[in-house]
Amino acid sequence: MTRLKAYLRPPQPSPPTTSASASASAATKSFNSTINRLSAEGFHRDVLFTFSSMLRSHTPPDAHTYPSLFKACTFLNRFSLGISLHQRVITDAYSSDSYIASSLINFYAKFGRVENAQKVFDLMPERNVVPWTAMIGCHSRCGNSDRAFRMYNLMRYEGIQPSSVTVLNVLSGVTELCQVECLHACAILSGSDSDLHLVNCMLDLYGKCGRVEAARVLFEAMVCRDIVSWNSMVSGYARSGNFKEIMWLFKKMRGEGVVPDQQTFGGLLTCSDSVQIDVEFGTLILGQIITGGLELDAPMATSLVVLYSKYGNFVSAFKIFEWVAEKDVILWTSIIAAFVQNDNARKALVLFTRMLDSGLISSTATIATVLSACAKVGSRLLGMSVHGYLLRQGMPVDIPVQNSLITMYAKCGLLRQSLAIFDGMNERDVVSWNAIVATYAQNGDLREALCLLNKMRLMVQRPDSITVVSLLQACASTGALQQGKWVHTFIIKSLSQPSIMIDTALVDMYSKCGDLKTAHRCFHHMPEHDVVSWSIIITGYGSHGMGEMALNLYTEFLGTGIQPNHVIFLSVLFSCSHNGLVSEGLSIFQSMIEDFGIKPELEHRACIVDLLCRAGRLKEAYKFIKTMFSDPTVDVLGILLDACRMKGDAELGELVARDIMKLQPVCAENYVQLAHSYASMNRWEGVGDAWMQMKALGLRKLPDGGWDIVGNLLQQQGVDVYIDVSCLSTKPTRLPTSDLMLCFDALLVAEVGEGQGLVYDYYDSTCPYVEEIVKREMFSIFAADATAPAAFLRLLFHDCQVQGCDASILLQSEDSELQSSRNFGIRKLEEIARIKSVLEDECPMQVSCADIIALAAREAVSISGGPSIQIPLGRKDSLTSSSQQADAHLPSPSIDDVDRFLQIFMGKGMDLEESVAIIGAHTLGGGHCRNIVSRLSNPKPTDQMDQGFQLQLRLSCPTLIPTNNVTVVPNDLTTTIFDNQYYRDAAIGRGLFPIDSSISRDARTMAIVAQFAVDKMYFFQTFSSAFLKLASTGVLTGDEGEVRLDCSLVN
After folding, report:
1. For the whole model, what pTM was predicted?
2. Is the pLDDT confidence value at 808 over 60?
3. Which residues are annotated as a binding site for Ca(2+)?
């Protein structure tokens, strides 16, 4: 405290003279005037800069200075600075000032520190209405309405007369009718019932509590009303679904000359469920908004987007979204959710990318929606990137987000991660249990899914229809009839409410398990049938060779009067196709078009192609494709190509193959299929031609089947997106990006770096899953500690810098590298040891500690938002470690000599741009106070640092600190995110270290810093190349070194 006071309150020379005191007082008043003016105008950053100037000029602040400072800290989210200012308030003996105390209470309330705010309040020797009002508002805003109400009563008991603002603060957190009525009575007794703002608040609360009649009485008694009064009444009636009264209010508004505003229509739209507003009425409201000259703001647009999406009008919903100039996060979330619900997850991800580019910070609702989109496209890369974004932003992970994470990882086949999220939940709802049960059910682990159902019941969590449907679907997909019967018994005993969804799932389960008799009995006992249940039973008979029965059921369905849709016709056509009912299938297809006016979709037409191919009518199938498909898909042509192979029709097969090549000329899978077709017909010259064409086009088939390599391009199969990887094997160039998928701007696959005895397939035969294991373990580490990426990246840099990347930094001895002061603050050594232990269980004595460090650092870059870098492996561990070597080769944090840094990194084969990229790689991390204090205490004239940033560092790291201080000072979000923020900061004097200032001014590096600052992709490419060179230079390979059993000890 003494040291902090020494900085924040510079010592005065000697007792000042009267004239000096008067001068100081005048200066203080002048600064206060400026600070208060800037605060009133909303220039909160300038408020802090002015206060910094005030301190430098040795002008003492007074009680009038601090309220504006705490307000600035609140708006700028500077909690640590506010704490420092509170310390100064205490040392300057201003704690008892009521306005300062009220500002402190509001400050702590903003950051959710209610107990701190209460402590400030309790320590006040005297309290007037101002701190009472602030403290009551603090509890109300934090959701503790009972505490706020008790404090209100205590305030009155102590003889403090509440103001109308006090009552408003209590009302802001009230949810119970009795409390509203009590406060209403208090307002009448105190004479505050004439306050318009207070009465409007009570109108709104009466409506929310379902007492719209009481609100009407209060409304009619009002002498003066404003538009807020009218809007409160409209919202109240809208919540109760009283459309007649709403129309009466609109009529009366016009009669009194009151013009509706955005909130009037918004209040009606937000309650569209209770009023049963349809799209037509929504369009009418939109017309009123436009003709009335009102601006379509974000809240109204959100309501309209939700309304149009609810009725399936997504085109109009998107048009409304695009009309809004100032979009908020709620509007973005609603349109993203609309596309997810419309099975257009890719478009939803594109919109999420646009939202991030607009500078908005996502809400947890946005993240939950985007994770649902990732689950639908089944992309683990996208899902993990969104999860990483969630962690880096430090967002609260609520139950809906955790549920979405469980589902996303399950859909991507990552059961371990799903279970880790579930096990880490402090609270679970039925959706959480459903998600984890569905996770195991969908991945075929029916035994574990049933165990979880039992655990769910033991936790007194009642399973619902979603739970049992997931289990029935698992039984259906695995043919587990006995387990399905057990679930059926559980449904009869535990779920009394009938559900068409459960009944349909039972029919589906028994059908797929081959028990058609029970399936038909379940279908017959259903209280009602819909199109889906009819489709299930028809498909069940059709798939078991009972096509005639399927057609009889279709005839029975037509007699029910239910309007058929595309689903029922797909089931019937499928049944015809699998039972050789060619004429019946063609007839039903024609009836679908002519009798029911249903336009055949791709699936229906593909069924007809399959129907004709199974019957051997290949030429007729080809003619059908040419007639019914304006743009045939590869999958449909593939059906015909396989049929040609089976029937031995080489001529037609070659014709179809050429059509496929025209659609996707650079898809390796097509050439492989063509080669197989030729081989089945013993046309070996065709097989050779197919492989030669692949080679001529530079195509290679990747093992996972997800991507094709086309020369220097990666193409995702089925998606017209190409990613240039040649930039990493030569001088980096700008990487073209696509907005089709969220993470394409960060997906860099580097196929360079082999050499020095390192190869990409080093562990293919000895430990083939090493990279997957490291990725899995690192992900769990990052999920628990968002700052972990910084530690692993720094560990690699410090290891490679001394003796090459040989894990020498992990060796423990009296003279190890860790003893060097340059390795101060190195973390996560124990995690490397833990990963090594896991790999030893999987592949004993195969994977070196050096390779583990390199793979861990690669994952650190990727999961924290940086590029994905493919690295060669085969490093061996060193036998020696020396603190003297570390002292000699690791640069000091106080060095500002650009030449020294360039010498270090260019000595490893890097060019100038790569060296600057590596220098900036400590964007993923922060600085320890002990490494920054010398820069703050003895700044060089050439060291240009932003004054506001300098003040922030001084408050975080007081100059009089021990040299072993381990406090980490982050720069922006750099402890958790890998991006080009470092270069933007360096360019404006906000870098942590002296070298940050130097490279932004040096003639050789200044332009590179500026380019990296504005072009993240260019930085990513350059860094990827630099990372490979750093991790691959001077390594031990072959017979050099060893593979340690324990990373901290030589064998």
Report:
1. 0.51
2. yes
3. 799, 802, 804, 806, 808, 817, 923, 972, 975, 979
